Every structure is written in structure tokens, then in C-alpha cells.
């Protein structure tokens, strides 16, 4: 049985590493901390994989692309109870930007499922290998910013028209009397991303603001009748 939820208090930190390198083939380095807060010694096996994100945020995984090169200080280890363990890595890519995840599968639990199966827990760490060139303001375009009153939500669709990776840190929707904030999300090169922002405040939202690391993007919000 696989679970993506650390029900037995296993954690990985950080969840995301964004590494800046000077160019293709240049090496990024970092470390990942795995913590076992249970009362059992657990085994951990690592597996890097490439992934794709759809325009609505669904993830699909595949074997690591040939153009991504990753080396880890170890691929398997054991963590005693209430202890942590650091894994050091080096990563490079034939083209930039590139990204991949590191699956960490925790095993060795004494507990079993009601059906008698062994329990395994999978935690993800995401590594980005990025060039110095960042997403520019004129490369990020809001294609849709629409409030659907019947569904009480704002539909936001943005397009990254450039070759650089970007990350929206926060999406903020406001009216004269209310506000709703959506957490951050990545915007991949030459792709679109759609998110839904719940709206429970009074009145119709009229303004959208996207906050990125080095700029903000503002857009009016259209409304549709139920």
C-alpha cells in the first residue's frame, strides 16, 4: 500500500529546491533532510523521476529523462526512531530549465493495513535546475480572469509565453469589501496554467493581482451570471 500522506510523522525538507546554474551541463548541489519521528527504525529508498504538469495542475511521472543527470550521496538508508538523515545531491541538465522529483519510499513499519498489507509511505522532493534568466513580466499573460457567481469561484488561466520557468507566489482577488488569496503555483515555459480561487466575500470580485518574486501583474476580473 502506498500513501503520500505522512501519517506516521515522516517528513522531507525542503519540499522544493530551485537551483540557479550558469548554463547547460553546469552542476547544482544541495541537500535533502528526511526525518523519522516514529518509534521505529525505517528503511528509505530514493528514486528520481521526471514529471509533467497539466494546465489544471495534474502531475504525471515517468523515468528520469536522459538529459537530466543526478547523483546522490546514497540511494537507500535507514533512519532510527526520532532521528533525521541528510542526503546530498548533484544535478545537471543538458538543457535549461529542467526539473525532476525524488521519490522517497519509507518502509519497515510494524503496522499493517486492515487487509494485512505492508505499509509504505512516499514523500516527494522537487528539484529545479534553472538558468539565470528569469520569467519576464511581458511573458506572463492572463488569458482568463472570470468570476462565476453560481459557483462562487474565480477562474484564472495564465500563460507563460517565454522560455523561462516562473513561479506565482500568490494570487490575490479583491472587491471593494473582500479578498480571497490563492497559494503559489509554478508556470512552466510555453504553457498555460489554470487555477480556481474560491470567493465567499461580499460583492463581486473586480481585481486580480499576481505576485511573483520580482514583479506584480494586475488584471480586472470579469463576471458571468449564473
Could you characterize what this model shows?
With 226 residues, the chain is mainly beta. The chain has 2 domains: 2-130, Sandwich (Immunoglobulin-like); 137-224, Immunoglobulin-like (Sandwich). It is built from no helices and 19 strands. It has strands spanning 2-3, 10-13, 16-20, 28-36, 42-53, 59-63, 68-72, 76-79, 83-93, 98-107, 120-130, 140-148, 153-160, 166-174, 179-187, 191-198, 207-211, 216-220, 222-224. Strands 1, 3, 5, 6, 8, 10 and 11 form a 7-stranded mixed sheet that branches. Strands 2-4-9-7 form a 4-stranded antiparallel sheet, with no helix packed on it. Strands 16-13-12-19 form a 4-stranded mixed sheet, with no helix packed on it. The protein is globular, with a radius of gyration of 21 Å.
What's the quick description here?
The chain is an all-beta fold.
Architecture of the largest domain in CATH? Answer: Sandwich
Describe the biggest sheet? 7 strands, mixed
Radius of gyration (CA) equals 21 Å
- CATH class annotation of the largest domain: Mainly Beta
**Which series of helices and strands comes N to C?**
EEEEEEEEEEEEEEEEEEE
What percent of residues are in strands? over 45%
Number of strands: 19
Structural class: mainly beta
Give the uncertain stretches in residue-range form. Answer: 1-7
The CATH superfamily of the largest domain turns out to be: Immunoglobulins
User: In which range does the helix fraction lie?
Assistant: under 10%
Mean pLDDT: 93
The span between the termini is: 43 Å
Reconstruct the topology from this structure.
Blueprint: E1 2-3, E2 10-13, E3 16-20, E4 28-36, E5 42-53, E6 59-63, E7 68-72, E8 76-79, E9 83-93, E10 98-107, E11 120-130, E12 140-148, E13 153-160, E14 166-174, E15 179-187, E16 191-198, E17 207-211, E18 216-220, E19 222-224
Parallel strand pairs: 1-11, 3-11, 12-19
Antiparallel strand pairs: 2-4, 4-9, 5-6, 5-8, 5-10, 7-9, 10-11, 12-13, 13-16, 14-15, 14-17, 17-18
